[in-house]
Amino acid sequence: MINTALFEEHIKSGARMIPFAGFNMPLEYSGIRDEHLNVRNNVGVFDVSHMGEIWARGSYAFDFLQRVTSNDVSRLVPGKIQYSCLPNGRGGIVDDLLVYMFDREQYLLVVNAANTLKDWEWLNKQNTRGAILENASADISQLAVQGPHAVAVLQQLTDFDLKTLKYYTFSVTGFAGRPDIIISATGYTGAGGFELYCRNDEAVHLWKQIFDAGKQYGIKPAGLAARDTLRLEMGYCLYGNDIDDTTSPIEAGLGWITRFTDDKNFIDKEYLLRQKTEGVNRKLVGFIMLERGIPRQHYTLLGKDETETGQVTSGTMSPVLNEGIGMGYVRTEHSQPGTEIAVVIRDKQLKARVVELPFVK
């Protein structure tokens, strides 16, 4: 198992560590609910250094990314970020990712930790025209500072005006006395905040500086468990749960990152366009439990006629709503908000209702 540069800091903070995607990662510190609500109401810090970072450079980088990603890279300008996915040539998804544009010949791809090697091999296989690819994952640490007080905490450590950093943009600037730190505003919690990318040997310094600056704002570390419940309240997909090699972006409600323009010819374009125009047999939906129970991955979902309509892909007890919430694929006829379905939990059929996402507005 690989330790991130912040491993010792996690131990000092009393983290419960678990193996995840080949790394020793903090699952929780003070408890999932406490960390979750602290991010929603104050500010929390996640070590997400396990995420993968792959550079695409050179004169062929743009054309390469236009072909391997579903979103339209031509919409990017320097300093802008794009959410996208890698179609797998069979109608499914290799991975979902973020594309950072530095300039026309330099992009940073941020991919899921468990898929870094898989993505790296896939990208190299598709790289037939000579884009310059570099897997920098082992050299980069990433911190996610999330919550309504994130600006107040981080602004103390940089001269760059963080309020000018709009959603899905980034800047390379000085931070905590260190030059060339990438600061972005994407987030996986819905609570607002920033991500900071630095060299591994800078991570502990940034971590300590951020916690010193955040004392008056109730800053706390947060682990993978809270990160999962936070993203689920927002209805954000998790690769391996809600999307994978067998699910299409159209089925997953990711048609908005699947661009069918005349000048963009990408992998699976014709298949996915046919799905968009003709419709799909199943859709990913969010649902709230109407009876007390916590839905979990792989639990069976039933339609009104009590026949199986799909399976739960993600589920939890929402710390904000104090209700069971979940996501799952159901037959299209059961996908409309307001539709009543049932979740089979311990051989009991518990009522639930399909709702619009996000769960927490």
Question: Please, could you describe this protein's structure?
Answer:
- It is a single chain.
- This protein is an alpha+beta fold and 361 residues long.
- Among the domains are: 2-49 and 139-233, Gyrase A, domain 2 (2-Layer Sandwich); 281-355, Aminomethyltransferase beta-barrel domains (Elongation Factor Tu (Ef-tu), domain 3), CATH 2.40.30.110.
- It contains eight helices and 20 strands.
- Strand 2 and strand 3 (23-28) form a beta hairpin.
Quick rundown:
With 361 residues, this protein is of the alpha+beta class.
Please state the structural category.
alpha+beta
Gyration radius from CA atoms, angstroms: 21 Å
- Please outline the major beta sheet: 6 strands, mixed
**Mean pLDDT reading:** 98
Q: At the first level of CATH, what is the class of the domain at 2-49 and 139-233?
A: Alpha Beta
CATH topology of the domain at 2-49 and 139-233: Gyrase A, domain 2
CATH superfamily of the domain at 2-49 and 139-233: Probable tRNA modification gtpase trme, domain 1
What share of residues are in beta strands?
A: 25-35%
End-to-end distance: 38 Å
Assign the CATH architecture of the domain at 2-49 and 139-233: 2-Layer Sandwich
- Biggest sheet strand order reads 11-12-13-10-4-14
Number of strands: 20
Q: Name the poorly predicted regions.
A: none
Helix content percent band: 10-25%
Descriptive key words:
361 residues; 6-stranded antiparallel barrel; 8 helices; Gyrase A, domain 2; Elongation Factor Tu (Ef-tu), domain 3; alpha+beta; 6-stranded mixed beta sheet
